[in-house]
Amino acid sequence: MKTFAEAPGAKEEDKDRVMHLTFKVGNQIIYMADNGSQPVDRGNGMDLTLEFASEEEAKVAFDNLSQGGKVLMPFQRMFWGTTFGRLEDPFGVRWQISTES
Q: What number of CA atoms fall less than 13 Å from residue 81's CA on the CB side?
């Protein structure tokens, strides 16, 4: 992770914002960044979903993403046949973690 504080000429008010962040989920790399110096309005309008081949991989992702956040729906076997859980991470991002079957 790199913050705007590491960029030449960064504004003081932007120093704690994320300029570049990567994390790996299984074989997938996800890139993220804050939106510069624009104000952020957090809301519940979108969840990001990660689907895994195995329950073990999905459980690890669920546990890691929920650390410091809150579980909205426990990770468990669902009536539609997959294992599924929903959480909000410490940054206010909502995630759905699911298995293929």
A: 2
